[in-house]
């Protein structure tokens, strides 16, 4: 569905609910094959009151493919004239002029130039309606091998993340749905070694790695803009880490309560016996007074240092001596980076180290951690509405080509160099930031190689 049409439905959902009848609408959606019986049953089994069912029905319609909006218009034209007028009311009904401008600026800002590909254009700006229809169909329907993935399958993906236990908690379930495979990982035939440094073991077939991905796309009550293009990040990351031999746990639009529960389940599960653990979160964020904030679905705040604390040696002993990778694809401020002129800098020596002391035998609280941010403190991170986040796209391009013979820290330097070539239409750029806590060994991912 066109992004503006989706926003038109979501921003006017309260008025649409007032001007439509739930029973008639669901029957029309079923008769016109926009929703299956199973989809409607899922809504009615999970939500008891009709008002919530009504709202969830409209949310489901926004995920039903490129023809869903026109089908909804046809239904409303016949059955709900007031709702029809509401949906036909201007380019973005429910938005005032300044909000419309903000949406346009946001989309244009996220159109990017990269020397290796044609500049991406927002799915809603700068092209004819026929071009947009073709482009939207490419986004919402693609092929994986001999199987065609359509909006029906997309809905299955969404339903997979909505499964709850009987007590209302979300389940920790490996993400097994098919995704678009844009990149192919080059495999290695032998494990990589180092003459100077130890190497983390990465040769298991069944316990190679596990990654926990949180992708906040939409925000409750529109407290933050929808992260258009984040679905592309989902497919790219899931495809990449599956090819690297990782078990993937993927969740969208989590609240703080959901997040804490799932992390607790993960830490208590046998999955953390894997040789490597990776954590990836994509969301709106900010950096204030030295603290990095992440905004979850209901606008609750999650701090980066609290995430690291959850998985340190004290709070997650299962991961002691195992490599832990953390990726934060978030803004760390609102400044756009347009570059600076070079200037010379002096260096000073802070002090001397006594190297004669015996090394201690106790273990550090934070160790074997590599942390990566999509940008530096104070600056915004960029996301292309067609190709996804700059960090994810650059990472997939580099890791698929070089993970077979290059360690993770060197891979991320290559990612940073690749991302440095990107520019927004206003020539804004982005700088990768990383740090490590006791990450003293080399981590080679050894895709395709295993010894059991």
Automatic annotation (TrEMBL):
Ranges of residues in domain Caspase family p10: 359-447
Organism this protein belongs to: Culex tarsalis
CDD domains the UniProt entry points to: CARD
Protein name, as recorded: Putative caspase-1
Pfam families attached to this UniProt entry: Peptidase_C14
Lineage of the organism: Eukaryota, Metazoa, Ecdysozoa, Arthropoda, Hexapoda
GO molecular-function term, one example from the UniProt record: cysteine-type endopeptidase activity
UniProt keywords, alphabetically: Apoptosis, Hydrolase, Protease, Thiol protease, Zymogen
Family: Belongs to the peptidase C14A family.
Single Gene Ontology BP annotation: proteolysis
Domain Caspase family p20: 207-335
Active-site residues annotated for this sequence: 284, 331
Signal sequence range: none
InterPro entries to which the protein is assigned, alphabetical: Caspase-like_dom_sf, DEATH-like_dom_sf, Pept_C14, Pept_C14_caspase, Pept_C14_p10, Pept_C14_p20, Pept_C14A
UniProt keyword Hydrolase, yes or no: yes
């Amino acid at each position: 569905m066109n992004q503006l049409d989706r926003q038109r439905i979501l921003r006017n959902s309260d008025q649409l609910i007032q001007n439509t009848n739930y029973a008639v609408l669901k029957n029309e959606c079923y008769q016109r094959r926009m929703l299956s019986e199973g989809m409607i049953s899922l809504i009615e089994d999970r939500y008891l009151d009709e008002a919530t069912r009504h709202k969830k029905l409209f949310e489901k319609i926004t995920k039903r493919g490129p023809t869903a909006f026109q089908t909804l218009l046809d239904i409303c034209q016949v059955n709900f004239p007031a709702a029809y007028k509401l949906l036909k009311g201007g380019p973005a009904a429910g938005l005032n002029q300044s909000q419309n401008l903000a949406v346009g600026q946001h989309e244009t800002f996220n159109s990017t130039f990269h020397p290796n590909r044609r500049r991406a254009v927002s799915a809603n700006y700068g092209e004819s309606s026929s071009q947009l229809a073709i482009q939207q169909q490419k986004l919402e329907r693609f092929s994986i091998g001999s199987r065609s993935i359509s909006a029906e399958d997309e809905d299955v993906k969404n339903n997979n993340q909505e499964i709850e236990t009987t007590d209302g908690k979300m389940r920790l379930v490996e993400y097994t749905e098919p995704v678009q495979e844009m990149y192919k990982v080059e495999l290695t035939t032998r494990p990589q070694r180092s003459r100077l440094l130890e190497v983390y073991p990465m040769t298991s077939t069944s316990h190679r790695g596990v990654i926990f991905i949180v992708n906040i796309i939409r925000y409750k009550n529109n407290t933050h803009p929808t992260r258009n293009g984040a679905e592309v990040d989902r497919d790219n990351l899931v495809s990449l880490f599956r090819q690297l031999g990782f078990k993937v746990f993927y969740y969208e639009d989590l609240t703080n309560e959901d997040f804490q529960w799932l992390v607790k389940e993960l830490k208590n599960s046998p999955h953390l016996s894997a040789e490597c653990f990776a954590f990836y979160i994509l969301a709106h964020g900010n950096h204030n007074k030295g603290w990095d904030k992440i905004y979850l679905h209901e606008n609750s705040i999650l701090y980066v240092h609290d995430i690291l604390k959850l998985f340190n040696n004290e709070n997650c002993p299962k991961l002691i001596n195992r490599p832990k990778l953390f990726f934060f694809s978030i803004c760390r401020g609102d400044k756009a980076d347009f570059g600076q002129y070079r200037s010379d800098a002096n260096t000073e020596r802070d002090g001397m180290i006594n190297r004669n002391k015996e090394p201690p035998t106790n273990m550090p609280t934070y160790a074997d951690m590599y942390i990566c941010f999509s940008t530096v403190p104070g600056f915004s991170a960029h996301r292309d509405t067609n190709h996804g986040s700059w960090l994810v796209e650059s990472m997939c391009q580099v890791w698929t080509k070089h993970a077979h013979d290059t360690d993770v820290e060197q891979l991320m330097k290559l990612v940073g160099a690749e991302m440095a070539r990107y520019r927004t239409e206003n020539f804004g750029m982005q700088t990768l930031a990383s740090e490590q806590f006791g990450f003293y060994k080399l981590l080679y991912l050894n895709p395709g190689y295993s010894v059991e």
